[in-house]
Design goal:
binds zinc ion, binds adenosine-5'-diphosphate, 14 strands, binds magnesium ion, Rossmann fold, alpha/beta, five-stranded mixed β-sheet, Signal recognition particle alu RNA binding heterodimer, srp9/1
């Protein structure tokens, strides 16, 4: 960790005295709470839950009362009343199960839930207050530590944040467009529902599932849905939290996590961003990853220590399995892999259906169309889209969402907010109009380009204007060479138009050039679409150095090959540019007509555009 030291904060006496006051208040409240608590509880000795279970087993129990503060009062047949206390997040049934009481036995008991009376409430209030103060104090300590106050360290070491536990209500119905993944996880759900059934048959159930997929594709959601489907607790922790934590805490947090998990089992332990701790060991830049390694080791130790009847399933999520330590993937650890990809059109439509559930939509809203114009959107993006659309509708004073709301939300997300107020000179506007018209006209005359969905010269985000294609081929996963080539031609059409009309070029085309270069490069180095270079795949990901693999592996080919690749990329770009130029020269009249139309009305939709091109 290399936090910057801030001389302004740090050791100032003000911070310290504040800390002391908090400690004092804390102690007083805590003691006060305890005294009151004991008083209202009616004293009496406390027995353990194991003893409660023993009484149940021996059939001596007349009645059990569970109060809202987790006090368990046991009335015996012989009239004696005993008090016990159970873990807050575990139900009485789960607790008794731990001590060998079966569901049958439990059902025969006379159990009453005592609603919160003021007597129970008061001490609870105090406890809550105490917890709140402690949390505040720890946060305060962490903050001052970050600004370089290392003396406070020993205090902050105590549990920085509790592990999150809940029993989710989401189910598979809330996760759309990932049918295969759901099927693969179905088995886990069944196991968690009835572990005995599997154990009886001696089936080896998986201990760990690794979910691999880009951000926002619903990994967390799906893991929660598994717990929700099975009706078991979900405990989660994030790999990145370990890395940020104080030295030496990671491993003990893992231990705590699993201890707690064993108490509530069957359950799911979810480790998000496992790559943060699970990178290949002994590699990477910078060194000093002991903390990470210890944390990772502890996770492995815990998983290896699972017995056949440890009903815990560990689900880990990552968006880069390529950097994971192979030790994690060994049998008996994360030996199940579930890949989650960005949704295809159908998937996107289904996700939109999930997120528009319960939102008023006008009948004109066609989710299929929206799914079509959102290739590359992950579930989280689509959720965001629906939300933005709802905001547009609300701001426009309507009580249902219409298609325009979605359209605007999409553009806002894809391009950044509209910037009507940006000052543009008339000359600039003209250049933009011809640039965008150049894209659109080229695309119109290309065989394999997507149809134009919208053209505008209203600035948005970084762009002076843009042409939005309607991807008919729908998804980006499979493209023909012709399609890719035509995409490049379309991208270069903007610049070609500027050159033809004004004889000079501007910087407006820079992102077009970037996109076309990366497509051309991918064609040569990844898709085997250049005869000269052949079918070999070349990796030259400059990021690779930072991923924890060894250095010097950045390029796996010779300088000569590099030269050939460069020349092939150049050739593709040059050919495409020539094609764009010749299309626009041939249809110069259309280019001019469209640009003039744009200068007049600023935005054209598909129909308006195609009408204009037809004359
Ligand atoms: P990840 O963990 O893969 O980054 P999340 O599970 O955190 O993604 O997804 C964030 C949000 O996006 C979810 O809470 C959900 O609202 C939405 N979302 C993502 N994927 C889906 C999906 N397949 N179906 C429905 N909603 C989804
Ligand atoms: Mg997540
Ligand atoms: Zn452009």
């Amino acid at each position: 960790m290399s936090e910057q030291k801030n001389p302004e904060e740090g050791n100032s006496p003000v911070n310290w005295s504040r800390g002391l006051i908090i400690v004092a208040v804390l102690i007083v409240v805590f003691i006060g709470g305890q005294i009151l608590f004991n008083q209202f509880r009616g004293a009496g000795s406390e027995i353990s839950m194991a003893e409660v279970a023993r009484y149940v087993n021996e059939g001596q129990v007349e009645k059990i009362t569970v109060s809202s503060n987790d006090m368990v009062t046991v009335q015996l047949l012989d009239g004696n009343v005993l008090a016990s206390r159970k873990e807050p997040d575990i139900s009485l049934l789960e607790t008794l199960k731990l001590y060998g009481i079966s569901e049958e036995q439990f059902r025969q008991l006379d159990i009453r839930q005592e609603s919160a009376s003021w007597q129970g409430l008061l001490p609870m209030l105090f406890n809550l207050l105490t917890i709140g103060l402690i949390a505040w104090f720890v946060l305060f300590m962490m903050r001052s530590m970050r600004s370089g106050q290392d003396q406070a360290m020993s205090f902050g070491r105590s549990r920085a944040r509790m592990i999150n536990v809940d029993t989710p209500v989401v189910t598979f119905a809330d996760v759309a467009g990932v049918e295969e993944s759901k099927q693969e996880l179905q088995e886990i759900v069944e196991f968690l529902r009835e572990p005995e059934k599997f154990i009886r048959l001696g089936a080896r159930v998986p201990k760990g599932v690794l979910m691999i997929g880009p951000p926002g594709t619903g990994k967390t959601l799906l893991a929660r849905a598994v717990a929700g489907e099975a009706g078991v607790p979900f405990m989660s922790i994030s790999g990145s939290e370990f890395v940020e934590m104080f030295v030496g805490v990671g491993a003990s947090r893992v231990r705590d996590l699993f201890t707690k998990a064993k108490q509530v089992a069957p359950c799911i332990v979810f480790i998000d961003e496992i790559d943060a701790v699970g990178r290949m060991r002994g590699t990477g830049l910078g060194g000093g990853h002991d903390e990470r390694e210890q944390t990772l080791n502890q996770i492995l130790v815990e998983m290896d220590g699972f017995d056949n009847d440890t009903n815990i399933i560990v689900i880990a999520a990552t968006n880069r399995s390529d950097v994971l330590d192979p030790a994690l993937l060994r049998p008996g650890r994360f030996d199940r892999k579930v890949y989650i990809t960005r949704p295809d059109v159908r998937g996107r439509q289904q996700i939109l259906e999930v997120h528009t559930r319960g939102k008023p939509l006008l009948s004109e809203v066609n989710l299929e169309t929206i799914a079509k114009i959102t290739p590359g959107f992950a579930g989280a993006d689509l959720e965001n889209l629906v939300n933005e659309a709802a905001i547009f509708a609300a701001r426009r004073g309507r009580n249902a969402l219409n298609m325009q709301d979605f359209q605007d939300a999409m553009e806002k997300i894809a391009m950044g907010p509209e910037r009507r107020s940006r000052v543009i000179t008339p000359e600039e506007k003209e250049v933009v109009a011809f640039h965008e018209a150049g894209h659109a006209v080229t695309m119109f005359f290309l065989q394999n380009a997507d149809p134009v969905h919208k053209i505008t010269i209203i600035p948005r985000g970084m762009a002076g204007g843009y042409v939005m294609p309607l991807p008919e081929s729908a998804d980006t996963s499979l493209h023909s060479r012709e399609h890719l080539e035509d995409r490049i031609v379309g991208l270069l059409g903007g610049r070609a138009a500027e050159e033809i009309m004004f004889g000079r070029i501007t910087t407006g085309a820079s992102s077009d050039l970037e996109s076309s270069t990366s497509i051309a490069r991918a064609m040569v180095t990844r898709y085997g679409m250049s005869e000269k270079v052949g079918l070999r795949v070349f990796s030259d990901d400059p990021n690779m150095v930072f991923l924890g693999r060894s250095l010097g592996e950045q390029r796996d080919y010779s300088d000569e090959t590099a030269h050939t690749i460069d020349k092939e990329v150049d050739r593709i770009l040059k050919n495409s540019y020539d094609r764009a130029r010749s299309i626009l020269t041939e249809h110069r009249d259309k280019l001019i007509a469209l640009a003039n139309m744009l200068l007049e009305v600023e935005t054209l939709d598909r129909n308006q555009f195609e009408e204009l091109m037809a004359v």
